[in-house]
Design goal:
Hypothetical Protein, Haloacid Dehalogenase-like Hydrolase, Chain: A, domain 2; 272 residues; 6-stranded mixed sheet; 14 strands
């Protein structure tokens, strides 16, 4: 089994896991990736980001594996373009999220397959657009999209209001949608029973890889499902408490830009 190494697939979150605070892959993290690949491990990127936003890094790393995007709502084979898995937010729930967001005065982002739609543009949406590096289209009314189903929806608001409102959000949509705070100003909504774990499982099935042979690496609350699901879930040293609790291993403390590298070094050391 990989020359004695027990894992065949590593699914890795991007922001604050593979990418450091500067949104770059450190030299140490890149070396750690190559060390896993040298042991026959397939590297899979798993993020809340859009597929198109993840492609440049995927290409930069020279990967050919599928991408797990939008919190697991979309899994696409980069080489063939085939969609391995997709589950959108039901239209009626999308309309409810939009209406509730309007009642709270937040800026809503509608992640269509082709672009992100917004009605309200402000400093928060412009900052979000810069982070996404994708096309942002303004429309007069989300009613123009009635009946359509987005991959996900987001609310953008000031961090303190986002945090204070979240218990109310989870109470309203719990069991009907999955909800996450992924940035201090960002609440995300995806279809029920969708998570990165679902997306990673689709990739593992594609390659005939058992769950016990999968490693996952992450830091946020949206990573907890895949950290709990994998044969080995690994939380970064500065991860959220929920992510650490879900993981089987926590990276040793140190520079956040190299937390992934320290975790891989520990795994390789333990594997002999």
């Amino acid at each position: 089994m990989n020359g004695g190494f027990p894992y065949r697939l590593a699914a890795i979150d991007l922001d604050d896991t593979l990418l450091g605070p500067d949104k770059q892959v450190s030299a140490a993290n890149l070396d750690a990736l190559r060390a896993l690949q040298a042991r026959g491990v397939r590297i899979v990127l798993a993020s809340g980001r859009r597929y198109e936003n993840m492609l440049p890094l995927h290409r930069q790393l020279g990967l050919e594996t599928p991408i797990v995007a939008c919190q697991g709502a979309l899994v696409r084979d980069v080489v063939t373009g085939e969609t391995l898995h997709q589950r959108c937010v039901p239209a009626e729930l999308a309309e409810e999220v939009i209406a509730e967001g309007a009642a709270h005065g937040v800026a809503v982002g509608y992640h269509h397959a082709e672009c992100v739609y917004v009605c309200k543009r402000n400093a928060l949406t412009e900052g979000y657009w810069r982070r996404l590096r994708c096309e942002l289209r303004q429309i007069e009314d989300f009613a123009q999209l009635a009946g359509d189903m987005p991959l996900k929806l987001v609310w953008l608001d000031e961090p303190e209001r986002t945090t204070a409102r979240f218990p109310q959000v989870t109470a309203r949509f719990g069991g009907r949608l999955e909800t996450y705070i992924t940035d201090p100003d960002l609440t995300e909504f995806v279809a029920p029973n969708i998570s990165k774990a679902v997306g990673v499982a689709a990739v593992a099935a594609r390659y005939g890889i058992a769950r016990a042979q999968v490693m996952t690496f992450g830091d946020g609350d949206n990573d907890t499902p895949m950290l709990a699901w994998a044969g080995l879930g690994v939380a970064m040293s500065d991860a959220k408490p929920g992510a650490k609790a879900a993981a089987g291993l926590v990276s040793p403390p140190g520079d956040p830009a190299t937390s992934f590298a320290r975790a891989v070094a520990l795994i390789l050391e333990r594997a002999g």
